[in-house]
Structures are given as C-alpha cells and as structure tokens.
C-alpha cells in the first residue's frame, strides 16, 4: 500500500458550535443512526462509462465521494467522544473475490477523475489478490461504500459498530425506468452529526456531479 499522509483535522469547539444541542441529544441515544434510500439518475455517467471503458462503479463512487466532500457534516467524525472535522475524506469500499470473500479497500480522493479511476482499479486488483480483510488504513477519514450487485432494493439496513460516525453509502443494481438509467442508493449516517438537510445537500450535489 502506498504511503498516505493524513489530511488536516480540526476539533469542533462545542462552546460556539450551532449544532451542540443536536450533537449532545443524539450522542446519548442507544441507536443514533438513520438512513434513507433514493433512486438516482445515473444515465450520463453510465453512458460515459460504456463509451470510455472505465468501471461504472468507480464513476459513481467518484461523483458520490466528490459530493460528500462538499458537505461538511459528511467530513465530521466523533473521536474520543468529541466532534472533529477532516479536511478531506476518502473511499473505502468492499471488493468481492472469486472465492466468495471480500476485502476492504482504500482509495485516496482526487479531483482528477482519471487518476481516481486508475488508483481505484489498482487498489481493486490488490484486494482481489489478497486474503486480508482490512486495507491497512485505520483512520476515520473515509466513507464506507458497498455495492449490492444484482439487487434493486427499496430500503437497506447496515450493521453499525457502537460509537461509529463514518457514513455508510450503499448502491444497488442499475435499472431502466422510462428510458432513464437509475441506481438505488441508501445513505446511513449518525444523527449526532448529520441531519436531513445535510443528506439532501449531498444527494443534490451527487446528482449534479453525475450529470456533469
């Protein structure tokens, strides 16, 4: 695995934070996690992947990760019980192996689409030829991704480790509706950090990056 330099992280000052009350409320919940599932128009990205030959999943992962980095709460985490915010978050997605197992990958975020795709392909091959479950990247400056291939779902539930604050983003199988390619997408977040308006901002930004 290549050398990775951790990005800047700042502590959020609770004394002046406008979400302090929400953070303290939901931090006390046994289950502070919530999710929503939407169908996203991926027509342009799907067509571009077929024309250019890059893996479709890396195309929408790039658009999603780009969108997530534009929403500050998607870059926030709870560490040692306190809220912090990373400058940049990266991709950690599951990679399926031929023996029926999977491994977690790590791909550093890049504004450069071609670089991100190339790095993602390289990391995918590394995981496929490995027997390790974990990528070796232990920082919380990631978003967890997974793809449920062959299934078009209307809702989804993911296991959460107690105290985790890393968003989990899940994608299903692409389907066609009225000539439009769509992909089911579920977003799982910790309510101590992420509210409905933030998820809405992410979805709108994700759609824009897919279109552009």
Give keywords.
212 residues, globular, seven-stranded mixed β-sheet, three-stranded antiparallel β-sheet, Chloramphenicol Acetyltransferase, alpha+beta
What's the helix and strand layout?
Blueprint: E1 9-11, H1 20-27, E2 33-41, H2 43-52, H3 56-69, E3 76-79, E4 82-86, E5 90-96, E6 102-104, H4 113-128, E7 142-147, E8 168-171, E9 175-177, E10 180-190, H5 196-211
Parallel strand pairs: 5-7, 7-8
Antiparallel strand pairs: 1-4, 2-10, 3-4, 5-6, 8-10, 9-10
The CATH superfamily name is: Chloramphenicol acetyltransferase-like domain
Uncertain residue ranges: none
For this structure, what is the CATH class? Alpha Beta
Order of helices and strands: EHEHHEEEEHEEEEH
Strand content: 25-35%
Average pLDDT reading = 95
Oligomer class? single chain
Describe the protein's architecture and organization.
By secondary structure, the protein is an alpha+beta fold. The protein has one domain (33-211): Chloramphenicol acetyltransferase-like domain (Chloramphenicol Acetyltransferase), CATH 3.30.559. The chain is built from five helices and ten strands; from the N terminus they run E-H-E-H-H-E-E-E-E-H-E-E-E-E-H. The chain has helices at 20-27, 43-52, 56-69, 113-128, 196-211, and strands at 9-11, 33-41, 76-79, 82-86, 90-96, 102-104, 142-147, 168-171, 175-177, 180-190. Strands 2, 5, 6, 7, 8, 9 and 10 form a seven-stranded mixed sheet that branches. Helix 3 (56-69) crosses helix 5 (196-211). The protein is globular and about 50 Å long.
